[in-house]
Amino acid sequence: MYEQVSHSLLNHILDQLEPEIRRRDLRHFYTRLGANFYAIHTLFHQLYGDRDDFKQQMVRLVEVMAGQYIHRSATLRDVDIAREQNHNWFLSQEWVGMALYTDGFAGDINGILSRASYFQELGINLVHVMPILRCPEGASDGGYAVSDFRNVDKRAGTLEDLRNLARELRKRKILLTLDVVVNHTSDEHEWARLARSGEQNYQDYYYIFNNRDVPDMFEETMPEIFPETAPGNFTYDETMGKWVMTVFNNYQWDLNYNNPAVFIEMLDIILFWANQGADIIRLDAVAFLWKKIGTTCQNEREAHLILQLMKDCCQVTAPGVLFIAEAIVAPVEIIKYFGEDAVIAKECEIAYNATFMALMWDAVATKNARLLNQGIRSLPNKLNRATWLNYVRCHDDIGLGFDDTDIVQAGYDPQPHRRFLVDWYTGAYADSPARGQPFGVNDKTGDTRISGSLASLVGLEAALETDDPDAIQRSVNLILLLHSLTMSFGGIPLLYYGDELGTINNYDYTNDTSKANDNRWIHRPRIDWEMTELRYSHNTIQQIFNGLQKMIAIRKTLPAFADYNNRELLDTGNPHLFTFMRNNPFIINDKVLVVNNFDSSPQSLTLSDLGPRASFNYAQLRDLYSGESPRLFKDQLVIPPQRFYWLSDRSCS
Ligand code: OTU
Q1: Using CB atoms within 10 A as the burial measure, which of 120, 227, 246, 411 is most buried?
Q2: Is residue 100 domain-resident?
Q3: In terms of residue numbers, what domain contains 574?
Q4: Ligand 1 pocket: which residues have CB below 6 Å?
Q5: Is 580 inside a domain boundary?
Q6: Does residue 652 carry a pLDDT above 70?
Q7: Cα–Cα dist 442/182, whole Å
Q8: Closest CA to 550 of 461, 646, 616, 648
């Protein structure tokens, strides 16, 4: 957009750029800067316009974008251009991801590379390597307390190892996702050290207060994230004799985005990792980026402005790079992190579908899909050029983050229903085979979240102990059912390492003092590569691994599973079923009917009740996953317990 004020400022800025920048061939950079500048200027002005040094900060911002563009390799610039031309590339059904901790998966970065064929065997073509940046020796929140944003932790390897990993994955057409922990730093980060030593410039990077006056005001409305281990949101620093805002652990200092220097530093860091070869950047804890007294300090309007600004700036330097929003918040809030307008208010292209994840766990425990159907129906539409990251499990706890109004609509009483779910997954409920543990128990609010590996939560751990073949089979079926949902729902499925092998809880963390008080470590496994060989011979593991491999391969052939908002939820009248139609966005009448039965008994569905949109040639109906004809009596479909069908009447492509 052309607008006089911002354009004359842009001309002024370009005149001021360092001669080194001015001499370069920056044609692509300038066209993108011109196209985005009005938005960038407007957003930067909304956030920082009242400062005397606003213009200098603007110059600095443009210098950072230009500087990182100059450092962007020819290969990555070509990737940018190819993705501009095919800008919906990430909505395709071909993408399937895995998230992993480097040490637990393969020791170090080179170890990951040596396992590239494992990804390929399974069909994984997007790898999220969780934090590998320099972090404290002891407790570091699994690397989410970063002490140097531009260096790899030596336990994981070197920066050169990482660049090499990026190059090698690219050759294999595997996307690399890296974290940038935008909300906080470790208290060992240089900025924190300088702040501690009394430098005002760096104290201004954080929220630091002389006494409890302001912190007490904040505390009135701020919830606690880790109430058991890090109660309150402020930590007293002995050296400074001051209070620091620490929303997460007491060693994670919240960055102060009221200060434009913080924004510019973080943008520079994002672009730095884009230039090391990251295809996708996962922005951690984005809901927390702006703090305001009298609020929960989550999902504030300014947090969205910051993300819009980050996106607009990234589009100038590295437009091929996507953002993932990690915002584990209420359903109506999550969706806002895609941005509210595709052109003028874009934020992250991808977001964790925490709502879907939690709803699936509800369906498993209740053996019906009432709340799942209700919760998905209540989700507002997302932008077209945006997609979900669908996951069953990740490295964090499971929060029961669905809406109370939906719980009521589904016919339950919110409080006892949530209590039931916690009891179910922690095994306190009489009939439950689950082996989870309560996490983040908050006595003040009654809130509790859940830790535990996928396999242990669906009863596999208990079933293996009693060596009960039926119970083992039930758990395997549930594991496959849950994965099938992330594959068929629409969005990028993200497996969590170890789940493809049915990995159960690992209790070793209790022996490590830096981990013992955080039971999320129970589901952060160390892969035993000899054990992985069992995927060829051990019945249970083989079924899971092969099942996933097959699902992934089939998903990739089905354009109906791409994410073009081409899912229609179907009301079947049977509460045990979660049923939807996926329509091929490119070919009319090419559709897949997805039916999921959460009950432990077979369930039926009368296809003709679904109306003309589910008109199939029943005689030719096939389950694309098993390749078999489904159980059918006339137009009545019978879905076996805890099974899914991907139904189509078209011949296999
Ligand atoms: C994220 O988590 C990370 O995934 C966690 O591993 C980190 O501990 C945390 O940030 C701090 O860096 O911020 O937007 O309920 O779901 O802390 C949500 C616990 C987050 C996590 C929550 C989450």
Answers
A1: 246
A2: no
A3: 564-652
A4: 141-142, 144, 181, 225, 248, 284-285, 287, 326-328, 395-397, 399
A5: yes
A6: no
A7: 26
A8: 646
CA 118 / ligand 1 centre spacing (Å):
28
Euclidean distance between CA atoms 361 and 499, whole angstroms: 15
pLDDT 10s digits, 495-521:
999 999 999 999 999 999 999 999 999
What is the full DSSP assignment across 358-417? HHHHHHHHHTS-HHHHHHHHHSPPPPSS-EEEE-S--SSPBP--S-HHHHHHTT--HHHH
**CA 450 to centroid of ligand 1, rounded, Å:** 13
Report if residue 436 sits inside a domain: no
Given the residues 94, 161, 312, 326, the one annotated as active site? 326
- CA distances to 354, 418, 438, 489 from 126, in Å: 19, 34, 31, 18
CB 575 within 8 A of CB 605: no
Task: Verify whether residue 284 is a known catalytic residue.
Answer: yes
Contact between 230 and 250 (Cβ < 8 Å): yes
* Helix (H), strand (E) at residue 203: helix 200-203
**Residue 197 near residue 187 (C-beta atoms within 8 A):** no
Q: One of 153, 284, 461, 563 is an active-site residue; which one?
A: 284
Token pair recorded at residue 359: 């709803």
Ligand 1 centroid, distance to 452 Cα (angstroms): 16
pLDDT at residue 162 is higher than 90 = yes
Pocket test for ligand 1, best of 100, 189, 225 (most atoms within 8 A of CB): 225
- Please determine, for residue 172, whether its predicted confidence score (pLDDT) is greater than 70: yes
> For position 630, which CATH number holds?
2.60.40.1180
User: By alpha-carbon position, which residue is closest to atom 4 of ligand 1?
Assistant: 396
Instruction: Express as a percent the part of the chain with pLDDT over 70.
Output: 100
The SS3 of residue 433 is coil
Tens-digit pLDDT profile for residues 352-406? 999 999 999 999 999 999 999 999 999 988 999 999 999 999 999 999 999 999 9
Which atom of ligand 1 is found nearest the CA of 440?
A: 15
Q: Which residue shows structure tokens 């007294």?
A: 293
- Phi, psi angles (nearest 5°) of residue 582: -110, 125
pLDDT of residue 651: 66
Residue 265 CB contacts under 8 Å (≥ 6 apart), including other chains: none
String of b and e for 617-639 (b: at least 16 CB within 10 Å)? Answer: ebeebbbbbeeeebeeeeeebeb
> 326 an active-site residue?
yes
pLDDT at position 320: 98
- pLDDT tens digits for 229-272? 999 999 999 999 999 999 999 999 999 999 999 999 999 999 99
- Where residue 615 falls among pLDDT bands split at 50, 70, 90? confident
- Mean pLDDT, residues 162-171 taken together: 98
- The one-letter amino acid code at 420 reads F
DSSP lists the bridge partners of residue 439 as 449
pLDDT score of 343 more than 90: no
Closest CA to 177 of 144, 131, 116, 128: 128
Q: How far apart are CA 222 and CA 176, in angstroms?
A: 35
| 523 CA to centre of own chain | 17
Number of domains in the chain: 1
pLDDT per residue over 293-342, tens digit each? Answer: 999 999 999 999 999 999 999 999 999 999 999 999 999 999 999 998 88
Residue with CA nearest ligand 1 atom 16: 396
Question: Would the pLDDT of 653 be above 50?
Answer: no
Average confidence score pLDDT of the chain: 96
